[in-house]
Amino acid sequence: MWRTRLGEEGGGIAASEATTSDFSERHTVFEYELQQFRSAELIRRAEQERLAREVSRGRRSARRAAAERARGTAESEPHTHRPRRPRSARTA
User: Fold this and answer.
1) Mean pLDDT by 10 residues, the chain (92 residues)
2) What residue spans define the domains of the chain?
3) From CA 61, how far away is CA 42, in angstroms rounded?
4) Which residues lie in Basic residues bias regions (predicted)?
5) Within 10 A of 19 (CB to CB), how many other CB atoms are there?
6) DSSP states of 13-55 as a string?
7) What is the pTM of this model?
8) Cα(29)–Cα(35) distance, integer angstroms
9) Is 3 helix (H, G, I), strand (E, B) or coil?
10) Residue 66: beta bridge partners?
11) Residue 69: its pLDDT value, please?
């Protein structure tokens, strides 16, 4: 972006700016494509995470529903009336 001096040919833009703008235009297009790629990748990751959360919520809901159904059946009750753990700690 070098401007010529006021005394030389009306103060127009020098020829060196034309090559610089071509480079910066290609550079800008490349940056834009990189940004588009990154954006698409982030969107894909977000969708995968959403699906994973949805699956885990569904599984959790199914487990809770199964636990509610099994709560009143004989399968959920213990076979013996003995407590699972002894009431007092074991002595040495």
Assistant:
1) 53 52 79 95 98 97 90 65 73 72
2) 13-71
3) 28
4) 81-92
5) 9
6) B-THHHHHHHHHHHHHHHHHHHHHHHHHHHHHHHHHHHHHHHH
7) 0.47
8) 10
9) strand
10) none
11) 84
